[in-house]
Amino acid sequence: MIVKTLTLGNVIATNTYFYIDEKSKHGFLIDPADDADLLLQTIRRENWIIEKILLTHGHFDHIGAVADIHKETDIPYYIHRNGEKYLTDATYNLSTYLASEIYLPDAQYLSGGEIISLTAAPQISLEVLHTPGHTEDSVVYYDKQNALAFVGDTIFNGNIGATHFPGGDTAQIYQSIREKILSLPENTVLYSGHSEPTTVKAEKAWY
Asked: Is residue 10 over pLDDT 90?
């Protein structure tokens, strides 16, 4: 598997991830933060086929390139069902403070607990773990086989996500971290929205 990280965004630097099956060149695009042109150029240069866009939550800094990529490619994008109001309300997705508000009405919705697999490589799959606290719609995409998880802004290297935005809840985020993330195998690598990768074992030291 290939994990390629691009850190994008003029307002907030956010990690966008490509998770690609090396053999088939099919994969997922996770949290396309900004610069759709660069992301599309990367896909075309590498001859990758993106089957799904996966969103860890609906804040503007994680969804900024979704509309343009979806318009260009028709790749479906997925978010937790609580994310509908984040994608369709600029106050919730925080783009009300930007020059252009973000409105994404065509998402596919998840409930948590789903297994999302690549059509071209069904052995590559991500489990959807609902981890509210940073937002009501926050999720983790967990690959048990390859011992890694894309955790969005729920947990960072040595820190946790902010809880003062609409839908945030401090008690909830700690519960999500303890029950859904720190319960994963200790060797699981955690790829977050705004920090270097870490591991479950390393983060357990903080709790």
From this structure: no
Indicate the pTM of the whole model: 0.97
Domain boundaries, the chain: 2-204
Neighbour count for residue 23 (Cβ, 10 Å): 10
Rounding to the nearest 10 degrees, give the CA dihedral for residues 195, 199, 201, 207: 30
Give the DSSP per-residue string, 66-115.
HHHHHHHH---EEEEGGGHHHHH-HHHHSGGGSSS-------EEE-SS-E
> pLDDT (tens digit, 9 = 90+) per residue, 41-61?
999 999 999 999 999 999 999
pLDDT band at residue 207 using 50, 70 and 90 as cut-offs: confident
Tell me the CATH number for domain 2-204: 3.60.15.10
